[in-house]
Amino acid sequence: MLFADINLLDENLDYQTHRWVGTTEDGLIAYVGDHAPEGGLAAAFGETYYGAGKLLVPAFYNAHAHAPMTLLRGYAENLPLQAWLNDMVWPFEAKMTGEDNYWATLLACAEMARYGVVSFSDMYYHTDERVRAVVESGLKANICESELYFEPKPFSEYACAAKCEEYVKKYHGAANGRILIDYNIHAEYTSNPQTCADIAAVTKEKGLRMHLHASETKSEHEECKQRHNGMTPIQYFESIGVLDSPTTAAHCVWCEPADWDILAERGVFVAANPASNMKLGSGYAPIPAMLERGVNVCLGTDGMASNNNHDMMQDLYLLALLYKGSTNDPSVVTPKQAFSAATRMGALSQGREDCGMVKEGMRADLAVLDVSGPSWAPMTDPLVNLVYAGHGSDVCLTMSDGTVVYRDGTFPTVDVERAKAEVATRTKRIIAEV
């Protein structure tokens, strides 16, 4: 595709007008210029997409998700985290089949594509079915198989160990690198030191990434300190080698100053989930302090039982806004920091070094927004407009690795009506079984 005479946010998130951007069949951005490609190059890019009234930006990378939880949208409401998990979520999940996970993931992919998301880090079960859905959708994902490790024993004695080994062999780097396999520890309170240390060693040996929850609630944080001689979840995970691998730690709501230093030193990516954390009454991560310490901050939606939608622009708005109120400082978390968290930093959290920027040689992961509506006028500062005045509904085209996965209300890669019907039927069945 050749995006012609379109305005964009460049690799520095600076606003550039009247640009031409060419993407190739192998999913790369091959041309960015202030004039049309010369000679026969323009025709080689295929379809010309005219940019009047549009803004081209890097697509979003959802750094923490549980995609199959689309099945639970609206199901477990108005509950604190532990009651939400123990009384509602875990009993529901125990009834979910592989095919349930497939259809729920497929619908999640369509929803994310609708809102400009091209890649997500997913922590859940039934990896075969989730991979199948992501590959069909044209999106990308870092996928980890989750299990709760309550019994102290070697990781090799858990069924998940053999599964993860198989998934790495089958899927790591599959679909031209769109699928990556991570290792996972759900949380400190759902695991034990022996098994966690084993998982950490395997992850490091294989050169893979780690995905975990940490300090999501105050009770989780304080009870960890009681169990482990005053160590917080981050300090505990560091002590047993978990942070020796590139790590994405979701939430980190109750992390302490000493944790911020560890996160920065270890290069951990903190996946903020402002909508989910507030909805569950957990609070919100001390993002301004983390940014000041040099912590890598990215952005996630979490699952649809605790957020209810995959609209990353909604979480982007919250990330940029709520800390100004909580700190009484309007200068914290700038629009550029927030948008970077949702794009380039999210890509880096997944190990996707060639993603997250509109730049020649990068993967063609792009979103086009319709900026012709009244909420976008005037365009005094397009990045400010995007963060504070934009909406997910402004996305009119999403391109993942050079493939259009959403365009003007259509989903070229997903039968979205069937996916909606399948998920509705399966949710009804599971609720009847619980």
From TrEMBL:
SUPFAM superfamilies in UniProt: Composite domain of metallo-dependent hydrolases, Metallo-dependent hydrolases
Domain Amidohydrolase-related: 56-405
Pfam families: Amidohydro_1
Keywords linked to the UniProt accession: Hydrolase
Domain of life per record: Bacteria
PANTHER family assigned to the protein according to its UniProt record, in alphabetical order: AMIDOHYDROLASE-RELATED DOMAIN-CONTAINING PROTEIN, AMINOHYDROLASE SSNA-RELATED
Official protein name in the record: Amidohydrolase
Provenance organism: Gordonibacter faecis
